[in-house]
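Why do we care about 3D structure at all? Because function follows from shape, and shape follows, mostly, from sequence. That is the central idea of this module. The next example makes it concrete: a single protein chain, its amino acid sequence, and then its structure expressed as tokens.
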Amino acid sequence: MAICLIFVNNAMDNSKKPTLTVAMPNYNDSRFISTAIEAILNQSRQPDEFIICDDGSSDNSIEIIQAYAKRYPIIKLIRNETNVGNVNIVNVLINAAAGDYLYFAASDDYILPGFLEKSMDMLKKYPDAGFSASFLYNMNERGKKTGIGYVPGMSREKGFMAPNKIFDIVCKIGSPEMFSANTMVFKRRSIIEAGGFPTEIRYFNDVVMSAAIAARHGACFIPEPLVCIRQRMLSYSSSYFNNPELFNEAIGNAVRYMRDKYSGVLPARYIGAFEKNMSYDGYFYNLSAARRSMLNQYINLPLRLTPAFLSMATYAIDAIMCLNYLREHRLSIGTYAMNYIDAVLYMRKNRHLLD
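And the structure:
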């Protein structure tokens, strides 16, 4: 199935209020999609339209979506007979959307009450911002919350962040993934201006596009977790994490794309931070794979030796990863410690949110 992407201006009449489209790609997520749909339909600020694109699912996703579409007129189903991939689907959804603002909802995650209202209120207050984002909850495949996706150095006060402030924080903490796309409500015009999600690089396309939007327009931020993200063993991300060669190739593709397409938009220091941090992540995943291999290899050691050996080896690997992180990002131990303490204090203060 060939897809020709021509972004058009489908903007609704926003003389009364800005309009909002929620767009949801789906592929074989019948186990979770009802929860995701219900979370959107139960929002205090309802979307003006809700587009779900099924990408050739072989489970009963279509039946579930159609049942909701019969009950709720705002739901529109786009159905692909064959699977064309998530990156292509989100660009199709951009073109199909008519709202002034656009939120991409994952069919295996869910948003919390008030997410859309709080995000749209922020974007109404700061209409020049390219998007609004928030913290998130991590949860396991069964839906149990396991932590908060917190970024050290982020403001505890909600409001607008200018581009320079965003990239100052990114380079200080050594991580280019300051915002999660799962929490972003985008100004649709800013996505079109950025050229949509770049299909050339596939993985990292959301990170690259949102960085370009932030560099041009800045962003709003809400310092509370408003979205629950499901961590799954078999996912699109894990296919890269578990394949070092594929992951490193994706890093190279993303860096080349940013230098070519966004050379006058993204600061060179950001592209450098991206390359270093993602290379470290690749190094981390390799060590994690080595740790798993070690566990498998020494599982038959005498019982009295196994715990001590594995503990020492684990501490050694952790120390190597920590020292390499400091070296790669040229961070002092003091800066690293301050980031760590900041995250720990935030988690302790908000531990009750995980109950």
